[in-house]
Specification:
Layout lengths: L2 H16 L3 E11 L2 E12 L2 E10 L5 E2 L4 H16 L17 H7 L2 H8 L2 H11 L2 H10 L10 H14 L3 H17 L3 H20 L3 H12 L10 H4 L3 H7 L4 E5 L4 E3 L7 E7 L2 E6 L5 E7 L4 E2 L2 H4 L9 E4 L3 E7 H10 L1 H22 L8 H9 L1 E7 L3 E4 L7 E7 L1 E6 L8 E4 L3 E2 L1 H6 L5 E5 L3 E7 H9 L3 H9 L2
Antiparallel strand pairs: 1-2, 2-3, 3-4, 5-12, 6-11, 7-10, 7-12, 8-9, 8-11, 13-20, 14-19, 15-18, 15-20, 16-17, 16-19
Helix pairs in contact: 5-6, 6-7, 7-8, 7-9, 8-9, 8-10, 9-10, 14-15, 15-16
């Protein structure tokens, strides 16, 4: 479903219930465990401006929640009236700073140099400070550099520069920490040139003996290994188990396409009609941001299968992300009807494609999740590898009993999990809704919860094996453990 179709469908439902009283103002895509959804902002158009009424959600089946009622409109009007009666905030004493300054004031302040610096871009100020090279200038760069970390695309380069500054200031321990963080950023994007620069600096800091087996060296070797080209598509996990007869049916329909760096394979929202397998190079997965624009959430190395929506999403399937070559890349392409026919002949093959699709959905959800999104791609991959199974429950089912150390943690894909205390199943003490985690902290730290977790009918849950989560935490930095502890 496209943004325009969502806009039209919600608008039509508003006309039926409210005439022209309410309007749609914004439609944005959100990532869910069970698939993409859309959040639609609905407003009441008034003379003094739009009044926010509600943010509706439309799922991939076209179901709109919550159902708007007159109370939603009344509440919006009451909120606006309440805000209008609130006293105006006091004027900002600094709002007009500079507007009332005379020449004498400026002479007294001696701020002309400061004002000229404010007008300079931050990266220019940092480069100038590093270029001067004296301790005071390097300390100025040290204070300014963290502000650049908000730039997602340039975070690795910023961390590497922070490491170089710390090394020049005589702080090798701090430099080593920033260096490892930059290496993880470069490894996420398979930026081998920058990763090798980080490795060169790490070698200088720790020496040859300590460098062997160090985090930076391991990241460099893993990235090099993953970039080895595939000889044929049947080396890919999803295609590896195909019988010879089915391989012979598939081969005549495979074509090989070479992509230049930056060339787009498909755009998010376009019709999905083909399946792709990366032969060589790197293909980036780009997701639209809710506030506009897009960002690179992962790089897919040789052997990755992409485009599963074309065979699992029906005739109107749409691309769930944009795919773009990050360097010169080769991709095998196969029409969806051919793959779909093979899936009907080989149920195990169809199951592997479906599992790949679900993992990609959860990965997209992780990348946009406010907590999981802080983790490196490799950590998210390890988190995905902890998944035991995905299960749907038609009846109420006990998932995790009270007063027992859980053997797994849960991520609710659809429906909800109710929590009950003291054996009382009449009224839950809490409810875990879709797209929420439960039991991660308990599973990591061997804590027996005092409540029982029961899946409600129609609920789908992804189970993460507790033992593998524990091992992931044991070999991960403290910040990774802190992120996982906060889940749910």
């Amino acid at each position: 479903m496209t943004r325009e179709q969502v806009w039209q469908k919600v608008s039509e439902s508003l006309r039926e219930g409210f005439g022209r009283l309410l309007d749609v103002r914004e439609v944005r895509r959100v990532r869910r465990v069970a698939g993409d959804a859309w959040v639609v902002t609905v407003v009441l158009a008034a003379q003094r401006g739009d009044l926010h009424v509600a943010d509706l959600t439309m799922d991939d089946a076209g179901v709109i929640t919550p159902k708007l009622a007159p109370e939603h409109v009344i509440d919006a009007v009451k909120r606006a009236e309440s805000e209008a009666r609130m006293p105006a905030s006091p004027p900002d004493e600094l709002a007009d700073f500079g507007g009332d300054l005379g020449d004498d004031d400026l002479d007294d302040l001696d701020d002309l140099d400061m004002l000229s610096k404010i007008e300079e871009p931050l990266d220019v100020r940092i480069a100038a400070a590093i270029g001067r090279g004296d301790p005071a200038s390097l300390n100025e760069a040290r204070e300014l550099l963290p502000r650049l970390l908000t730039d997602h695309d340039g975070r690795g380069r910023t961390l590497l520069t922070m490491a170089e500054v710390e090394l020049r200031l005589g702080e090798p321990t701090l430099a080593k920490g920033y260096l490892e963080a930059s290496a993880r950023e470069f490894a996420d994007r398979f930026d081998l040139d920058s990763l090798e620069k980080a490795a060169t600096l790490a070698l200088e800091i720790v020496g040859r003996e300590a460098f062997a087996g160090s985090p930076v060296q391991l990241l460099l070797e893993q990235s090099r290994q993953r970039l080895k080209p595939f000889a044929d598509p049947f080396e890919a996990r999803s295609f590896a188990g195909l019988p010879t007869a089915l391989r012979e049916k598939l081969e005549p329909h495979l074509t090989l396409r070479t992509l230049a760096p930056g060339e787009t394979l498909v755009n998010e929202g376009e019709p999905s009609r083909q399946i792709f397998v990366v032969k060589s190079g790197l293909v980036g997965v780009w997701l639209e941001k809710p506030e506009g624009g897009s960002w690179l959430v992962r790089c897919c190395f040789p052997g990755w299968l992409l485009g599963e929506s074309s065979v699992l999403g029906g005739p109107d399937a749409r691309c769930m992300a944009s795919l773009r070559a990050q360097r010169v890349s080769e991709v095998w392409i196969c029409p969806a009807p051919i793959v779909r026919a093979l899936m009907e002949e080989d149920l195990a093959f169809g199951q592997r494609i479906a599992e790949t699709k679900q993992l990609h959905r959860i990965d997209s959800f992780f990348s946009m999740h406010e907590t999981m999104g802080q983790l490196d791609v490799q950590v998210r991959d390890e988190m995905l590898s902890c998944i035991q199974r995905l299960e749907t429950f038609s009846d109420e089912t006990l998932l995790l009993p009270a007063n027992e150390i859980p053997s797994s943690a849960c991520l609710v894909a659809r429906g909800s999990i109710a929590l009950y205390a003291d054996g009382n199943t009449d009224k839950p003490v809490g409810v875990i809704e879709a797209d929420s985690f439960y039991g991660v902290r308990d599973a990591i730290h061997h804590i027996a919860p005092s409540v029982a977790a029961i899946a409600r009918p129609g609920t789908t849950v992804a189970f993460f094996e507790a033992t593998r989560l524990q091992k992931l935490c044991e070999r991960s930095p403290e910040h990774v453990v802190a992120v996982l502890e906060r889940l749910g």
